[in-house]
Automatic annotation (TrEMBL), chains A, B:
The active site is at 147 (charge relay system), 223 (charge relay system), 255 (charge relay system). This is S-formylglutathione hydrolase. Belongs to the esterase D family. SUPFAM superfamilies: alpha/beta-Hydrolases. It comes from Puniceibacterium sediminis. It holds the Pfam family Esterase. It is an enzyme of class 3 (hydrolase). InterPro entries: AB_hydrolase_fold, Esterase-like, S-formylglutathione_hydrol. Its EC number is 3.1.2.12. GO terms for molecular function: carboxylic ester hydrolase activity; S-formylglutathione hydrolase activity. The keyword Ribosomal protein does not apply. Serine hydrolase involved in the detoxification of formaldehyde. One of its GO terms (cellular component) is cytosol.
Length: 280, 280
């Protein structure tokens, strides 16, 4: 449960830090970023997990997401995990959307991935323990993410409703079992038996189980990847199940960090309202 | 006065754009970024210039500065120029603090720099014309910047008080004629006669001429480059001249973009208040 400080910078009265720690789950040293708001000086604060998209590390949203200002106002910590194990000894693929930078938040069961690519367990269990053991946070968690990370946030929350109090997503890969952003990776990591895939498809999981609270989804109307993201599948299930929540189709916005940055305020507020009212 | 669109992304209801244009002043194609707030749909808006520091391009503050949210709220455009001419045919130096990425906002008079390194004229005259001719902005300008860009903002404003209504800086190189961030570059670009340097030292310019309005300076107390920045020289002159303004020494903050991001809100508000009351 030890971790090493890579950097700590004062930010909005709190601290924007980067840490690394040995990961038993992934078999390598893993890096993550954490924003600790100023309120943590007076006692532990709730945690918002932000899962990043394809090609990202812990750094992208830390630098470009714009969450810190709002997290500092609302008194919640933000954790930015990496999107995969990394390093010379870790399997990889030349494509941007498989291997390092593209863990898809699953536990791989197929070679060469199964040795290190266990991002589902890493997020749900190991990094959660590292964070709660080492940082001034409550064991009260919300989760969000963008694109592949939106997929990760939704599927992880839907399968672990006892561990997360709130969930939202920015432009999530909403139906990966029916998308080229999903079928390729689920096949590589989990094998060709598609019954193993449904645990990693938020549209299927929501149809099966629903979600205990409400859900916030933001999607850019001018997103260049709409055909791969398939928000209509998730929106359809939400409407048919009468699932409380909002699916907001944001006119003119694309898939970039400018979209995330613009609506970071709303998502942080959404989670803060739900996390602060959780008894702990 | 033509320019080419490199990218345009919806951002906080406005547009975050990147443009390029042929520069007569610098003799190469130059790239800059511009945030246009939503209010520009209803008529031209004032301009805030943000000059970046050593090693930066137009991209760094566009992605990490956090100005767009506040500029969208206050209805002002933000222009992010590059910090030097660039390209294979442009002189350079192996050091990070000379040549490409380190223009220091002067007009070089010495070889090999004088052919392209004319960032003073580029900002004050050419890019200003390109911006006002092509973008939905008023000819009403404020200027700020960070580190080398703080030096640029202060010296350009102090020498052109008829062209700028407001000025501020983040951790500026405040007294370059007495700093290793300054003496090396002014010598290379302008030659060894130090009388030519004083036009590019905000401490000297302020002592000579003052500034028509008030000045906002933010400086991190934990800035790793304090000895090179010399805020005490500028603060001393401001106090002796009874120059209206604020010099804020911000406890715990370093030289990073987390510092800039934290106080971007205050600087945008400072400029917006002064620019919106300017008759045009």
């Amino acid at each position: 449960m030890s971790m090493e400080v890579i950097s700590e910078n004062r930010c909005y009265g709190g601290v924007q830090a980067v840490y690394s720690h040995p990961s038993n789950t992934c078999g390598v040293e893993m890096t993550f970023a954490a924003f600790i708001p100023p309120q943590a000086k007076d006692g532990p604060v709730p945690v918002l997990w932000y899962l990043s998209g394809l090609t990202c590390t812990h750094e992208n949203a830390m630098n470009k997401g714009g969450f810190q200002e709002h997290a500092a106002r609302h008194g919640i910590a933000v954790i930015y995990p990496d999107t995969s194990p990394r390093g010379d000894g870790v399997a990889d693929d030349q494509a941007y959307d498989l291997g390092q930078g593209a863990g898809f938040y699953v536990n791989a069961t197929r070679d060469p991935w199964r040795r290190n690519f266990r991002m589902y367990d890493y997020i749900v269990s190991e990094l959660r323990s590292v964070v709660t053991a080492n940082l001034p946070v409550q064991d009260v968690h919300g989760i969000t993410g963008h694109s592949m990370g939106g997929h990760g946030a939704l599927t992880i929350a839907l399968r672990n409703s006892e561990l997360f109090e709130s969930v939202s997503a920015f432009a999530p890969i909403a139906h990966p079992t029916r998308s080229d952003w999903g079928r390729k990776q689920l096949s590589a990591y989990l094998g060709d038996d598609e019954t193993a895939w449904s645990n990693h498809d938020s549209t299927i999981l929501l149809e099966q189980n629903g979600w205990k609270g409400d859900i916030l989804i933001d999607q850019g109307e001018a997103d260049q990847f709409l055909d791969l993201l398939k928000p209509e599948a998730l929106a359809d299930v939400m409407a048919r199940r009468r699932q409380p929540g909002l699916v907001r189709m944001q006119k003119g916005y694309d898939h970039s960090y400018y979209f995330i940055n613009t609506f970071a305020c709303d998502h942080v507020e959404w989670h803060a309202e739900r996390l602060h009212q959780t008894r702990h």
